[in-house]
Amino acid sequence: MKKIWIITLFPNYFDSLINFGITGSALRGEREAKIEIKTVQLRNYTPKDYKGVDDSPYGGGVGMVMRADVLKEALLKGVVQDGGYGEDFRHKLHIVFPGPRGKTWNNEYCKDFAARFSVPDSKDLVFICGRYEGIDERFLNLYVDEQISLGDFILTGGEIPTMAIIDSALRFFNGVLGKRESADQESFQSNMLEHPQYTRPKVFDGVEVPEVLTSGHHQNIEKYQREEAMRITKLHRPDLLEKDKK
Prior knowledge:
By secondary structure, this protein is α/β, with parallel strands linked by helices.
């Protein structure tokens, strides 16, 4: 079974990821994919003579920095020891820190990430959820394998980006979605947005569903949807089309 470990100050953040939606049903073992999320409460690994997980930065500055020794204890005891990974855990775990230095997460990156870690015998994943002004540089250099950024903006912690990364990546794991083509036909595939979608009622506020979609003519429908995908992309995200020209 693929395990995803999350070291965090707020394990309850991830209840919604596990308890709701398609991703949640996979994490609860209700789908073909066998994936398990295990959270590690960082506060449980502070030194006996020190109750916090953070401290003032050397050299001064505002805010607090998460301690490298506490993070290491949580990793080695809460993940490596409890998970039975042994002394060669670096060959069995891939440690991720969502942070601003990382490559920006997008659909292509997401699919590549899923391809790397969804195959049999691939490494289990560990996510480190930062807080405050960040985490000690030494832990980053010694233990983190990959940093991932959601974009050029600041969040109060790493829990939300971790959930976004997990939720989007798991959709590309075999056995998570009911139909594989569900992922293949959505926005950002082939550098385009998805075509507009319609459902009942056939007429809403005087606007009727496009006639071609109710015609039953599959070739015409596919042609229409391709054209609409192009129109929507040109209108809202023309930058996606520029990628094909490079």
